[in-house]
Amino acid sequence: MASAVFAAPASPAAARSPAIVQHIAPSAFAYVPATITGPAPLIVVLHGAGGDARYFLEQFKHDADQRGAILLSVQSSGRTWAQRKPKDDESDVANIKAAIAELTAKAPIDRGHTTVMGFSDGASYALSIGMAYPGLFRTIIAFSPGYAFAPSRIDKEQRIFIAHSSRDPILPAANVRDMIKGLEGPAIRLKSTGSTAVTKSIRS
Question: pLDDT for 186-202, tens place per residue?
Fold first, then answer.
């Protein structure tokens, strides 16, 4: 379904109201705030195990409106994300890259400010794919990750933020402490919160 929300980047003055969630690819949804008229940062959000991409995106629309950021939510190819080092021929990697390319052709994205953000298994995959493709993702945000597959070399200019509850009953905070010990170079800040709820963590 066509919408004025996805005006081409060359026509920033085009009408953009109302802003709605768009199904831009077989496995991806996007949201462009109506107030955006020029290049804006892109945040790729990755749901947790058994999650739904559209529902996950809906949780961040208010924040996107407030901060002037474009959202892209991609559905994992299986019940959850691949638990191995990301590769170009992997379906999840291909789907994420294809969705970014499709959205970039339709919305005014600032390519130098692309963030990948995830929760739980989505956080684990955000760390893995983010570190694997630092040229694509300059910032990584991970809420309650359980694992991460780091490349042999980590981009020291990439920004990584990890938040985890000290009382998480499913994924122990000790996992994150071990992860941080193994990540040398990036400026990592560990934030312990009293809740694993994504919306509470990101707004605090």
Answer: 444 444 444 444 433 33
Q: Is the dihedral of CA 166, 169, 175, 176 positive or negative?
A: negative
The pTM is what? 0.80
Decide if 136 is inside a domain. yes
Which tokens in the block code for residue 88? 């170009």
pLDDT of amino acid 182:
66
Q: pLDDT band at 101, cuts 50/70/90? A: very high
CA 19 to chain centre: 20
* Nearest CA among 176, 171, 173, 169 for reference residue 148: 176
Question: Which domain does 142 fall in, by range?
Answer: 17-203
CATH number (domain holding residue 106):
3.40.50.1820
Q: Considering its fold, how many domains does the chain have in total?
A: 1
Is 5 part of a structural domain of the chain? Answer: no
Q: How confident is the model at residue 184 (pLDDT cuts 50, 70, 90)?
A: low
**Considering the domain boundaries, does residue 6 fall inside one?**
no
> Can you tell me the distance from the alpha carbon of 192 to that of 180, in angstroms, rounded to the nearest whole number?
13
Residue 10 is assigned to a structural domain of this protein = no
